[in-house]
Amino acid sequence: MKFYSTNNPQHQVSLAKAVIKGLAPDQGLYMPEKIPTLSKDFIANISGLSFQEVGYQVMGALFSEDLTKEEIKDLVDHTIVFDAPIVQVEEGIYSLELFHGPTLAFKDFGARFCSKLMSMLLTGSDKKVRVLVATSGDTGSAVANGFLGVEGVEVIILFPKGKVSELQEKQFTTLGKNIKALEVEGVFDDCQKMVKEAFLDKELNEKLLLTSANSINIARWIPQALYYFYAYSRLPKTNEKVVFSVPSGNFGNIAAGILAQRMGLPIDMFVAATNVNKVVPDYLRGNPFEAMASIPTISNSMDVGNPSNFPRLLVLYGNNEEILKEQVKGYFYTDEETVEVMRKVKSLGYTLDPHGAVGYKGLKDFMAENPGYQGVFLETAHPGKFRDVVEEALEESLVLPERLAAFMTGQKKVEPLENDFQEFKKYLMSLD
Ligand SMILES: *Cc1c(COP(=O)(O)O)cnc(C)c1O
Predict the structure, then answer these.
(1) Which stretches make up the Tryptophan synthase beta chain-like PALP domain (predicted)?
(2) What pTM was estimated for this model as a whole?
(3) Is 308 touching ligand 1 by the criterion CB < 6 Å?
(4) Architecture of the structural domain at 83-105+221-394
């Protein structure tokens, strides 16, 4: 299978090249040249399959030209080492809990798949790979933990100083080994911009083998389609249509859901739910797409002013804006609304994290306007990851899961970095 750039369908590369490069040279995102559809039988019988079995079939459909059956099995088995249950929150509304992995956020799925696939594709090469990651929180922790100790790979994480919760920070600044953290005087978008610039810098790329593990990388992005299939497989069989609501920042997660839909999963509608960083909801409601500076919120993993995966949404709907706007409905919420929802849902007996709260609220508002649906919202992080916000909202203390508590005892190790690409370049050029 070839992968093409969203900026130029004529630019096509192999799987290995797409994964190792991350971003196309013209700054486009790689996309599979064809989207395979799964058989009606597979969909009809999906509820009888395990999460792994769903994974073999779905990843097999995409990667069977490039990887052996055994490699695909290895990849899926390495990725799916924790469950993603759906939990009923109220009548017809389910939480897809994606936080049962090592860093308690959905990015663990993509990070584990990505590190495994990269190490497979690099076998036999003697060049060290540098993975550059910009993070507003969860990407850094998931990628750092996914790549920790992977031979031949060094991970360099850029994060905005003072804009990431202590707990999130601990998860990527305390690991040591092949994980380096650079603390940037700026916001997330500054970090993302420097990383993008590094990938385009000729001199840097002659000296170093640089790659990305942000959701722009197909190896991070594609495996996220798996849990949409799995969630669907566990929903009760009814005559109602299915809607998925996805709390969104860079829009990789929802784009993977749309990929699943294009592969034949009968999802009728998507809700793109954001905080006040509402570029996409504004666009879906008829305004021009206008990137903006990101605004800090309590759902900080979604504080993105220029969503990097947006081009994938368009391409997945054949570059037809009308269809995109029909199939994806945008909603956005303030921090006050988010807190209110967390309190309301707590009274139903379920604790939301601030990101999941945004997803839940989008789903509720969609379903209030559109009867006849069963709804799933993606609970993208464990509430304990955003402990301060959740405790303040709910006025009660949370018990941290053991895995999270363990990170808090580590020693933070970072290097400061000015918000200046030349400084970043100097740092990279000094690596051997
Ligand atoms: C990254 C993240 C999101 C946003 O996901 P995108 O794929 O960037 O849209 C939502 N919630 C949490 C907890 C995250 O870490």
Answers:
(1) 93-365
(2) 0.92
(3) no
(4) 3-Layer(aba) Sandwich (3.40)
